[in-house]
Amino acid sequence: MHKLTAFLKSQKVRQYYLVGLLVFFGAGYFWTPSFGQASEPTAASAVVEHVEHFVFFAPFNDPSYSAAEQYALIAILVVAVAGLLYALMLAKQVFSADTGTKKMQDIALAIREGSDAYLGAQFKRIGPLIIIITLILAATFTGVQEAFRWGRAGSFMVGALFSWTVGFVGMRLATAGNVRVAAAATRSYGEAMQLGYRTGTVTGMLTDGLGLLGGTCIFLIFGVQAYEALLGFGFGGTLIALFMRVGGGIYTKAADVGADLVGKIEKDIPEDDPRNAATIADNVGDNVGDCAGMSADIFESYEVTIVAAMILGMATYGHKGVIFPLLVRGIGVLGSIISTYTVKAGPNDTSDTALHSVHRGFWIGSMISVVGFFVLGSLYLHFVPSTTIDPSLLLRFPNLDPANLPSWASFGVAGLDLRPALTCLIGVFLAIGLNKLTSYYTHTMHAPVKSLAKACTTGHATNIIQGFAVGYESTVATIIVIATSILLSVLVYTGTPPLFVAYGVAMAGIGMLTLTGNTISMDVFGPVADNANGIGEMGYDPEAMEKQKPGSYKRARQILSDLDAVGNTTKAETKGIAIGSAVIAAVSLFSSFIAVIAVGSEDKISMMSVDQYLIEAGKITVANPMVFIGFLIGGAVPFLFSSMLIRAVGRAAFYIVKECRIQFRDIEIWEGTKKPDYGRVVDICTNTAQKELIGPGLLAIMSPLFVGFLLGPYALGGFLAGMILVGQLLAVFMSNAGGAWDNAKKMIEDGIYGGKGSEAHKAAVTGDTVGDPLKDTAGPAINPLIKVMNMVSLLTLGLVLHYNIISPKLAVGGSAISTFVTGLLIILAAAGAIAWAVWQSKRDDAVADSFGE
Amino acid sequence: MTIHYYMLCYRFEALVASQLPPEDFGAYLAVGTKKNTHGNMLFFEVDPALRSTYFRLEDVPNTCVPHQDGSPKRSKYISTYRVLEHLDADVLGKLYLTTADGRVLGLDASTYIETHNGSGPNLFQELCPVSTMVVSTLTPLAFNAYMTDPKNQVGVPRLIFADLLVERTASGHLAGSLPYDHPDHIMECIRGLEADPLKPTKNVTRAPHLHGFFRTIRRGFFLGDQGGIKFYKFPSKEELDVKYHQWWHSATESLVM
């Protein structure tokens, strides 16, 4: 038995396991078409009314697609591949750079091994779950097109695999780039900065490329009905992002808080002191949290916004409404390729000029994208309505009259409708607005953070109080910006049915994430620079460097410190986009949700009438007690979810503190003559993070099922509305308050109110410690939570409509009792899972007992 | 094993015998015992040929012996009261600065040459045998002479003190980077002193919290009495950054006093 366990744990078996899963995922994906072909019109399916004839690769077989459209779709594929090749080229540049001294390489290796171990353990835990969910998705399919049963399930697996790949590669690159940035800093500022940024760009372009490739391939395979498969694809990416965000968030903050509690507070040793056993885990945490978690998060936002846009595009503009978002994304990839390559710094630049260069890159990309999608829109968005063929085509015009289309939407060209491009522009402004807003509330240059630093001079409590005030205020400002962008989308589509407005909002999401490549480059640059600074601290040999070139040590440390500051700023700026994109995607998906209630399943959305939509939308009102109950429960879930995560951080930190204390008792470790067992703390972090992510994951998946099957579809709508609103407010509050506390501390450390070691500094450290699990664990995890709940609701809505115990829509020939029993069983299973998750999150007493040993 | 003598001068005054060399002794004081001080420590290495009629040194060779397992005796306290006044300045050698996590920096004594920079207002932190923070119009030499003057009713026979930074901004406030507890009060004291030319010193705080203490050191540490003054020059920021990086990093990152 022991031998068998050892064999199963061996490196070789683990590799085979991963390869096996990869092959399985791939097979599932490519096997789907043939399966679907085999189930083409049968006697059983032929009796279903209004079933559209489905063929694979319709864009190349259906005469309604012009040759230009077919070439455009191929061009999008080429652009996606170009993005991936660009990422490969940059990865080669990163890997060919100098890796510094042996000591630096050893530290980087320890960080890399810890990061790999974490993702490997996570993959082992999540892999089987993904397979189970795939089978459930296939088994619970309620649509009429059998091709989508496995199409949706297979796409789910591919989405999950892509999301995991983005996270894994992002983290792997970051752990390779950090030591190279530290080595480059000994030579030149520009070289170090460029290397760090390009390390991030690899992940950014991988996200762009894989996201576009996945979406386009699914569309090419499944045509205008791709939304079925796209839902699966988006759900796969979202679920993995949730796990990566939750696991990474718990890991990074548990390691950080644990290292600080023992190192800084108890032992009074500096950050990154090699005697602290949690030092390496702390650096690993930066990678698994900020690289893997954030990359997977943005990837799923990228996917979910395109899923929402394509679903709504089909229901509004037909296949042009589906292809245009893909074209916009293609332009975005091109814009990112060009603009990220322009980000450079000179050998003697400073953090200000470097930051300017990063921002300039973002602006260049934005301009390329805006010009690009207006040019594409002018060429492509031409509609010639013919009421004799289909009167519903007039719905897209204000008051059903093409003449009413305002000149700003048609530019005076008959049949041209540039409103989708205009809403994309709104999205670009939204991204910039959220960037600026986040920067205002969290940057040291502005009043909110200055006020926090000042509050530190009067004590710990005043800092906390002021932080709450700043965080709360920032949520209002963010809501106003997001609401304004939605209002603008409404205004752009004035006079048209709500589904067009929803499409406009979805296109704003597309525009917002146009520059995903740049956004992720900026985000990943943060942990890379942070790690490089740590490696410089632990791995540089000051005397040897000074002997070789006087002043070089100080200069290199200054460069790393400056880059760390730039990275902190860029990382903070991207958080606003992540949260904003979650809300925009959720609002768009909410419209899809109403549409599915109206017609019964996703594959009939294109058959929905405006009246059906309006009738169903009108039923989701707080005047309906069930909806209101759902609304209340939905609003409470983000709090419960956050509570679970914050408790998990505390629990994991306890274990780390305990281990560090044990190691510090070894006097040789204390004296610095013996190396601590870093791996032990890394293992504790990895195992606890894996264990802790199950509960919040279950809550995210099971609570919509519980509400839907217990209270019905309209209550589920209320649940989603409450969850989106509260989740957004809470996420912004936690991210911004935490960011502001963090930067207030940095501000004081830079030399105001007494600097490091002063009373004000101690108050600032308290604020930062309180804010840490908020801004890096719970806050960011709410983004995927919002989307997972939306996706689960959408994917199971067909079942909810049939099996909810309040107002079931009985299937033909179905019995009321069996329907009720089925619904009840699902409710009990969901309630049991949620109860277990809550119970799991309350194991503090047991931990406290063991801690005292 | 060699017996070393150390005179602890901050955070408390004591004469100690130990078989540990200075760096290990500093680390031991800071982190090697559960009686650790949880903060910065300062101590002098005392001439091993020390002879005294005041301290009972004759017992030391018998009591400061290795433990049964062969490990060195880490500390044998000889006296914890009025130590400084009973040791000649000549027997006090290097001054060791120990951070809270046990990093030790040794400073050699040198001759103090007073320049125009020595003029006030100066901020002095007395370390042993009293620990008052004082602003003064006196230079370090004059301050030492004043404080150890037998005619001075609040004087002491011998004094160890540090010279602290009083960098000011254009608006006359203390620089924000200085971690003093009550910067405004320091400025009030300085202004009070400037308003009264006959007053040489003014107490700021009787027992201040020395947050970020090593970051506030200006020229260095002084050990003086009526016979003269010994100066322990504090390294420049550049030297600290490069030559004593680990110590400086530990000293500047410290959250405690």
Distance between the termini of chain B: 33 Å
Strand residue content of chain A: under 5%
> Roughly how many Å is the radius of gyration of chain A?
27 Å
**Average pLDDT of chain A:** 84
Poorly predicted regions of chain A are: 24-50
Number of domains of chain B: 2
User: Largest beta sheet of chain B: what is the strand line-up?
Assistant: 7-13-12-10-8-9-11
Overall geometry of chain A comes to: globular
Number of strands of chain B: 13
Give average pLDDT of chain B, whole number.
89
SSE succession of chain B: EEHEHEEEEEEHEHEEEHH
Beginning-to-end CA distance, first to last residue of chain A = 32 Å
What is the SS-derived class of chain A? mainly alpha
How many distinct beta strands of chain A?
0
The percentage helix of chain A is over 70%
For the largest beta-sheet of chain B, the strand count, sense and barrel status come to:
7 strands, antiparallel
**What share of the residues of chain B lie within helices?**
10-25%
What gross morphology of chain B would you assign? Answer: globular
Query: Quick one: biggest sheet of chain A?
Result: none
Secondary-structure element string of chain A: HHHHHHHHHHHHHHHHHHHHHHHHHHHH
